[in-house]
Amino acid sequence: MSSILAIFIKQTQDTLKNMGVLVQFIVFPVMAFIMTRFVDVGVGDMSDAFFIIIFASMFIGMTLISSSAVAIAEDREKKSLRFLMMAGVKSHHYLMGVGGVFLVFALVVGSAFVVMMGEISFIERLIMLTSMMLGAIASILFGGIIGMITKNEQSAVSLSTAAGMIMGFGPMIGMFNENIEKIFSIFYTSNFIYADFSTEGIIGHMIVILGNILVLALLFGWVYKKRGLRT
């Protein structure tokens, strides 16, 4: 527990000093607010919460993948991860320390998206936030894997940006293309719960998200053991 707390504090300090990362956590909810308030959707069956849904998915799929990937790649590049592993820090302890920081930020931003939603009940807002937070865990794991397999921080930025754009924009494109929607239906960013609050819908979406988390967690644990001590 002490190692998790130490890593958490260190990562919090690093994140608060990095304006580039902080801006990413601010821009998506701000854009969602502006677009929802000042742009009339008024197209077909689009919901009034269209922009909230789009920017929330983009935030989870892009910001968290990129942030966690760069943070872990930086630790590897500076050799601090090597020392942590030599000190016996387990993969899940390390991930809880680093990822916990981004999860806290994600909770704040996710809550902002939930507050902006229109006529849904308090329980539905909690369900929406829960699905987003599970998605945040998946993105942190995804970013962690990228951070572990890339050679340096610069490579992590490039690869995580590409992965984030695919995961973030995929669901939006799927709204307009049935074939793309089917492809992305297996990924967590297409399964956040914004509208279908039926029991069947909730269970179906949650199974997909949890399945993504399980696969990504196993991959991260394997990559951590294989790549953590390499320079």
Description:
The protein is mainly alpha-helical and 231 residues long. The protein has one domain (50-227). 79% of the residues lie in helices and 0% in strands. The two termini are 27 Å apart. The model has no long low-confidence stretch (mean pLDDT 86).
Brief write-up:
The chain has one domain. The chain is built from nine helices and no strands. Helices cover 79% and strands 0% of the residues.
Radius of gyration (CA) equals 18 Å
Q: Helical percent range? A: over 70%
Share of β-strand residues = under 5%
Q: How would you spell out the order of helices and strands?
A: HHHHHHHHH
- How many individual β-strands? 0
Cα(first) to Cα(last) distance is 27 Å
Shape: globular
Number of helices: 9
Rounded average pLDDT: 86
> Ranges with pLDDT <50 over ≥5 residues?
none
> Class by helix and strand content?
mainly alpha
Number of domains: 1
Largest sheet: none
